[in-house]
Amino acid sequence: MRSANKVATVATVTALASLAVISARQLDLIHHLPELPGKVFQSNKLTTSEASKVLGLPDGPLGLGSYALTLLLVARGSSLAKYKVGLDLLYAVSRSGGTYLKKKQLCGWCLVALGASAVSTAALWRSDDADD
Questions:
Q1: What number does CATH give the domain 3-131?
Q2: Which segments cross the bilayer (predicted)?
């Protein structure tokens, strides 16, 4: 496995772990998410709001499915993996960025997934540049 794929694999598993916590909250399996300090961090409120739903479904479980596909593509070394991690990053930025712009609030757990997506994207896209 290429070094970039290893980095992307670890980052994707990190995103999956964060999304598992978010999903547990959205499915009422846990009743409170630990928060980062600061009034801007409102994970409990944001992950259970109507805005956290996509087509009426909680975004956490949907994200788990999406990132599971990403993990499969990365682990198999698929040439599609770099595009999928890029889509993951764009989606994470749009969700977290949109929430911050509208409400001036952030979900710390969502930022973990966003950061992990950025790491995966940088690793896979940068490695392709080095292969040229």
A1: 1.20.1440.130
A2: 106-125
